[in-house]
């Protein structure tokens, strides 16, 4: 299975059915991934025999209508784009100078369906940030316990009748994460199997009722926004950190 096939499956899992209908016409997310891959391949620079450096800071410019459709996905789309950039670089043994950042920008000079990518090599520190992606929203995890459930006392509240008031918790000690069911009525699943308590690996999927919760550990470029829930997608860039390439 190719990288674009993986991307399409990841994106299909990340978006709901109603939004997926938007992609039946007009700009497709896969066209953005193709543009990013071309930019990486074009800008690859041989630094030494064992080191080929590629950009890690990308600005994807879109026509206003395409920008509105794409940013409507929230962090899900950016996460998948960053993941594909990382995998493509790894497959080519390319390296980055720092954490990956991808921003979507509105460009009124472009026609619908057009994509232009600008890129830079930005050297910097990487801040590892654990997050939970829930229905297009990203929730950074603080050190300690993060309770998920239907009740107002939960740290992450689910609008889901299949969830208990205090359904499950994610524990983060600064380096590793665990998920633990809190005696819920309908139980908790991890990657499709019932679970009482288990270690969370990056990209693990927790299922509570109808809710799909993805655990990620993002290698953000230092200074990148860590909580996009505060951003207005109509006026701000969506800058998300990604994973280091080989040779970190």
Automatic annotation (TrEMBL):
Residues 227-240 have a biased composition (Basic and acidic residues). Residues 146-195 form the FHA domain. It holds the Pfam family FHA. Keywords: Phosphoprotein. Residues 222-248 are annotated as: Disordered. PANTHER family: NUCLEAR INHIBITOR OF PROTEIN PHOSPHATASE-1. This is DUF3662 and FHA domain-containing protein.
